[in-house]
Amino acid sequence: MATYLYRLARLAFRRRRITVLVWLALLVMAGVGAATASSTASSTFSLPGTESQRAFDLIEKRFPDSSADGATARVVLRAADGQKLTAAAQKDAVREVVADLRSGSAQVAAVADPYRAAAVSRDGTTAYVSVTYKVTAPEVTDATRDALKEAGQRAGQAGLKAEIGGDALAVTPEPGAGEIAGVVIAGVVLVITFGSLVAAGLPLLTAVVGVGIGMSVITALAGALDLGSTTSTLAMMIGLAVGIDYALFIVSRYRAEVADGREREDAVGRAVGTAGSAVVFAGLTVIIALAGLSVVGVPLLTKMGLAAAGAVVIAVLIALTLVPALLGFAGSRVTGRGRRTARPAHGRGNAGSRWAGFVLRRPLTVLLTGVLGLAAVAVPAASLQLGLPDDGAQPSSTTQRKAYDLLSDHFGPGFNGPLLVVVDGDRAAAEQAARTIGGMDGVTAVSPPGPNAAGDTSVITVIPRDRPSSASTEDLVHEIRGHAERDVLVTGTTALNIDFSQKMNDALMPYLSLVVGLAFLLLMVVFRSILVPLKAALGFLLSVVAALGAVVAVFQWGWLGSLVGVEQTGPIMSMMPIFMIGVVFGLAMDYEVFLVSRMREAYVHGEQPHEAVVTGFRHSARVVTAAAVIMIAVFAGFIGSGEQMIKMIGFGLAVAVLFDAFVVRMAIVPAVLALLGHRAWWLPRRLDRALPDVDVEGEGLSGPPRKAAADPDPDPDPDPDPAPDADPDPDHELVRV
Question: What angle (nearest 5°) sits at the alpha carbon of residue 125, between those of residues 122 and 126?
């Protein structure tokens, strides 16, 4: 592989103008496609194979005029102090609000009068108006949302306190100051790492190009493929992080080759042939982990994973082609002052080699400290409770949260998460089901059955006693399903969340086995070892469980929650464990490949195991540290999001990278390698012959002699492209060992 990547990089270097123009053309075409595509994606959420989804499908079939999957809103109205909504003047004000809502938008399907729907509290001070829409939440237009808000404002002018909840108000989160700060921190880290603005700007530039192409393609295909806002957010998060990291590793290796006295074109080829090989395999592990989300069987996760995997593919291709082309334009400016003519002293230690020496002298102490420390952080993960966030998890200053609290205080917590019971039978069967459910513990109220036109299906609304995310509400759902006949189905947002959590739990071990198994085989090919991939997988599991423990402590227990803007604790998002496994595993293998491949390279070239560890840290520790800090900064930037799910994902990924990069890869990995010695690189002979030789270390590369140490780069500026058939080094041949 190193040979082919070497040739590809030299071609991109020589034909840099064409290479850059091709990528710019792709960026422009993707941008035009995004600009001309439909601006709305339906982002329909479904759970194939669950009872909730079967019930929704039955409602759509038997109630064709209903809006079962449409957006909803609740306008909660409260009378002024000392007044009641049962007074004539207050009734008129409430009915004006109902009229405003009905006439506010053509997307409105129905508006329920609270006096007819028994939606007035017992004390007469509070009522809620239920609004259903003909379209899903992402399809609700800004004009419709404005009409909803204006109706609430007019209610306020009439002396009523109005708060609005429901998914109709949900909007796609825009990039905020946190995401921008993450990119700025990444730029500062790159400048410190390279000591050159050109070298620091190049990874940022190529990452932005890659993210721009990926996001534009997702936007262009959003309507056709039913992609939601979360899909693009994840793709941007992952694409930006790996795009910077992959370019960083290529540029770093290129600078090392130039400092070692090689011609610039040969240095580009060798950088991509060695570090680029690591980029390819690191990218493959991320792609496997993300694409593997499709085995869960949830279309939303499948689309998120495949879109993010596509962003990683773009990042890898850019690192292998666009980065070498831009290095050609940058000339010697990318090496920074004081480094353009100096050859490095290979025996001289740096912070990385000194740290490796410290670990090698105390491997058992470092290993136990790292393992026990992460194990302690992982303890809260044993109390993990899964669920999906609702308006109760919104900041207390939002109207959604205020509406949620008003309903909970005046109607009961269960009014925020009603259950829909679908009875596939006649009116008598529906009435019997309603009586049975009404006698169960944990039920506050049961509505009369609402039959369809044919009279063969009815819908019953059940109000639980507790809030939607409580364990007692989940028990109630299971009790109804356990006592009901086969033709009685439970659905609604609350039941759907419960089924989603169960589906995530059921898919966790198969997904983990698939991803870890495939990545283990891939790393075995890369490192020609059994114990190194095994150590990598076990270290990942330790870091991801520790990260889940930190997430539970902050978002479920509330420890230090105020530091990251957590105002309301609650269960952890159902997809968080499996999502973290997918994303963090791929990113963890990045650091494993980049760090250990340099050790492997030194080992196969004759160094002893301890010497190879020191060499790997001397050359890679600084750049791996910079890559980890950049990725932490990018992910931490999403903690400032107003969306609880995005905030939780950003925090979890940032903490996971922190643990994996600085505890597992920088401490536990060298400690284990020191204890194993030569055994770390053992591979049975039969297996060695069976596995393909991908030559990540660049053994098959040979090139022209290095430049003299005092020979400055004669061409600090970009040189013109050579003739199509010309080769700057016609005597250079590639020899594959």
Answer: 85
* pTM of the complete model beyond 0.90: no
Q: Give Cα separations from 317 to 19, 239, 246 (angstroms).
A: 11, 12, 10
The DSSP 8-state label assigned to residue 120 in this structure reads B
The CA distance from 42 to 475, in Å, is 32
Count helices and strands in the chain by DSSP H and E runs: 22, 11
* More confident site: 23 or 736: 23
Q: Is pLDDT above 70 for 373?
A: yes
C-beta separation of 590 from 215 below 8 A: no
pLDDT, position 168: 82
Helix (H), strand (E) at residue 99: helix 88-103
Instruction: Judge contact between 104 and 95, C-beta under 8 A.
Output: no
Report the C-alpha gap between 488 and 469 in whole angstroms: 22
Residues in Cβ contact with 553 at an 8 Å cutoff, skipping those fewer than 6 apart: 380, 559, 560
Phi, psi of 593 (to 5 degrees): -65, -45
Radius of gyration of the chain measured on its C-alpha atoms: 30
**Residue 34: predicted pLDDT:** 84
Q: What is the separation, in whole angstroms, between the first and last Cα of the chain?
A: 12
For 447-507, strand residue ranges (E) read 450-451, 458-464, 488-491
* Buried b or exposed e, range 423-438, using 16+ CB within 10 angstroms: bbbeeebbeebbeebe
| Phi, psi for residue 71 in degrees, rounded to 5 | -65, 155
Average pLDDT, the chain: 83
Question: Which of 698, 521, 737, 680 has the alpha carbon at shortest distance from 598?
Answer: 698
Looking at mean pLDDT, say which of 229-233, 463-467, 513-517 comes out highest: 463-467
Alpha-carbon distances of 676 from 354, 360, 499, 610, 727, rounded to whole Å:
20, 11, 45, 10, 46
**Is the pLDDT assigned to residue 732 strictly greater than 70?**
no
Domains and CATH numbers, the chain: 72-165 (3.30.70.1320), 351-389+502-685 (1.20.1640.10), 410-498 (3.30.70.260)
Crossing angle of helices 16-36 and 197-225, in 10° steps, is 40
pLDDT in tens, 78-126: 998 878 998 888 999 999 999 999 988 889 988 999 998 888 998 999 9
State how far the alpha carbon of 61 is from the alpha carbons of 10, 169, 452, in Å. Answer: 60, 27, 10
Residue 27 has pLDDT above 90, yes or no: yes
**Interval 181-205: pLDDT, tens:** 777 887 888 888 777 788 888 988 9
User: What are the residues whose beta carbons fall under 8 Å from the beta carbon of 582, sequence distance 6 or more?
Assistant: 289, 290, 292, 293, 305, 511, 515
Contacts of 214 (CB under 8 A, 6+ apart): 235, 236, 239, 307, 310, 311, 314
- 140 φ, ψ (degrees, to nearest 5): -65, 125
